[in-house]
Design brief:
- It is a single chain.
- Helix content is 28%, strand content 24%.
- It is an alpha+beta fold.
- The protein has one domain.
- The longest helix has 17 residues.
- The radius of gyration is 19 Å and the shape is globular.
């Protein structure tokens, strides 16, 4: 009986501490099939864009871009998806002045690119 109690307490402490290991973008991981709100998507897309800048995947001028240029639902390869775009008029490479981010309807990140495909 004592070993069951100890094992239960140990399991409970592991479950309770998992939040400490969550990344900064943990709030942008969703379950279920309910479509995410536009506000939530914009917040998650902005966080992801900033993470791309911090990781050196986007030039520094993208840090100043805060407004989503366009948000729409599209037909993806498997189902409906969210497509968001940011425009950066200060981009050095004009072929890469638009960043597209794709999310599932519930709000989970799929991909990012400059082609929109």
């Amino acid at each position: 009986m004592k070993s069951i109690l100890i094992a239960s307490a140990f399991a409970a402490s592991l479950l309770a501490s998992t939040g400490a290991y969550a990344g900064a973008d943990a709030s942008c991981h969703f379950h279920g099939s309910k479509p995410a709100s536009e506000t939530t998507l914009i917040q998650c897309a902005t966080q992801y864009k900033d993470k791309l800048v911090e990781g050196g995947k986007l030039e520094r001028s993208w840090q100043a871009v805060s407004k989503v240029d366009k948000l729409e639902q599209i037909d993806g390869k498997r189902s409906k998806e969210w497509k968001l775009s940011f425009r950066n008029p200060g981009a050095a490479d004009k072929t890469k002045d638009t960043l597209y981010l794709f999310y599932t309807l519930p709000g989970n990140f799929i991909a990012a690119n400059h082609t929109g495909q």
